[in-house]
């Protein structure tokens, strides 16, 4: 199944989230059944990230957006933990600091965007400035409504500088959110995740849905597509995202760079070093065996 085709938001196309089934799992029936595929995608991602880093000419930005408890942290943990920490990082967008708030809304996103060879995950992102900011009326409509074009221009600029951009909206149902809130309540290991705002934000579900639908419609572009991922089943969410990331990376034309030294010259240096090392070892053995003989004759 090509999940990129299935879940992509066509540029400019109106999105109706209530028509997308958050329980969708395609022909897969269980986690166990999907496991080998997930594993295969994770291994591919690991190989590709090694190439991305070695190649050093491009970068990858993965944007994760969702309502509370939809699984952004889970995606980060499950899908990206197998990768080499060198060259990968995650940046979480919290309420802007004083310094961040003093700049334009794209300033912090730009600062944390990946450099060449890097893979960066945004856990929430510059999209908060047309989501939470719009829903809570933190700025006027005249301000946030201009941001869609600004975001498109910003992402186009990153893209023309060699950054591939993949944006995922994790789509869960209100029921599923509530059952995850219950898990957070019942499981002491998850209590720390609870925030007061979880419940007040939940009340704003229709407003967030509207804000998400507009963002998805207005900012899904060929150079920075949005994917709406059915995410009630965590394993299916992991399967779909890992496949989309692995497929995208394998089309980036990543290559190991050629050696930047004269290989013949280095090979002959290696052989010389090997001979010298072997000489040192046999010299050491001679000395050792003489020592041993001496101490034996004394005894
Ligand atoms: P979880 O989904 O597990 O609860 P989280 O991403 O909500 O994790 P928190 O630390 O609970 O993490 O929340 C960060 C908060 O910061 C979110 O409520 C988010 O909407 C808010 N935020 C992010 N960017 C902005 C912004 N530009 N303006 C205002 N609030 C923002
Ligand atoms: Mg939260």
Task: Walk me through this protein's architecture.
The protein has helices at 3-7, 31-55, 72-80, 98-101, 107-112, 132-135, 141-144, 147-160, 174-186, 196-202, 205-219, 234-250, 263-298; strands at 59-65, 88-92, 119-123, 163-171, 226-230. It is 53% helix and 10% strand. Strands 2-3-1-4-5 form a five-stranded parallel β-sheet, sandwiched between helices. The longest helix is centred in the C-terminal third of the chain and has 36 residues, at 263-298. The mean pLDDT is 94. It folds into two domains: 3-250, Rossmann fold (3-Layer(aba) Sandwich), CATH 3.40.50.300; 263-299. It has 13 helices and five strands. The protein has 299 residues and is α/β, with parallel strands linked by helices. The termini are far apart. Bound molecules: adenosine-5'-triphosphate (ATP) and magnesium ion (MG). Magnesium ion (MG) binds next to loops. Residues 267-299 are annotated as: Disordered. Belongs to the polyphosphate kinase 2 (PPK2) family. Class I subfamily. One of its GO terms (biological process) is polyphosphate metabolic process. Residues 40-252 form the Polyphosphate kinase-2-related domain. It holds the Pfam family PPK2.
């Amino acid at each position: 199944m090509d999940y990129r085709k299935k879940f992509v938001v066509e540029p400019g196309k109106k999105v109706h989230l209530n028509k997308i089934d958050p329980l969708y799992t395609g022909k897969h029936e269980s986690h166990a059944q999907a496991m080998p595929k997930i594993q295969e995608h994770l291994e591919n991602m690991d190989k590709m990230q090694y190439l991305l880093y070695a190649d050093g000419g491009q970068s990858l930005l993965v944007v994760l957006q969702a309502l509370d408890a939809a699984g952004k942290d889970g995606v980060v943990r499950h899908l990206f933990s197998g990768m080499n920490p060198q060259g990968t990082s995650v940046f979480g967008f919290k309420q802007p600091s004083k310094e961040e708030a003093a700049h334009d809304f794209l300033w912090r996103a730009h600062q944390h965007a990946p450099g060449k060879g890097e893979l960066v995950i945004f856990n929430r992102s510059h999209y908060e400035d047309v989501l939470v900011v719009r829903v809570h009326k933190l700025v006027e409509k005249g301000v946030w409504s201009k941001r869609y074009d600004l975001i498109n221009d910003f992402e186009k600029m990153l893209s023309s500088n060699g950054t591939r951009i993949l944006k995922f909206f994790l789509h869960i149902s209100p029921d599923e959110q509530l059952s995850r809130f219950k898990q957070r309540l019942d499981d002491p290991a998850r209590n720390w995740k609870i925030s007061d705002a979880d419940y007040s934000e939940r009340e704003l579900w229709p407003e967030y849905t509207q804000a998400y639908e507009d963002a998805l419609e207005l900012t899904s572009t060929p150079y920075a597509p949005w994917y709406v991922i059915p995410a009630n089943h965590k394993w299916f969410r992991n399967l779909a995202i890992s496949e989309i990331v692995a497929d995208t990376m394998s089309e980036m034309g990543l290559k190991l760079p050629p050696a930047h030294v004269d290989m013949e010259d280095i090979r002959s240096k290696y052989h010389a070093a090997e001979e010298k090392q072997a000489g040192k070892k046999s010299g050491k053995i001679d000395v050792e065996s003489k020592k041993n003989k001496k101490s034996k004759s004394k005894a």
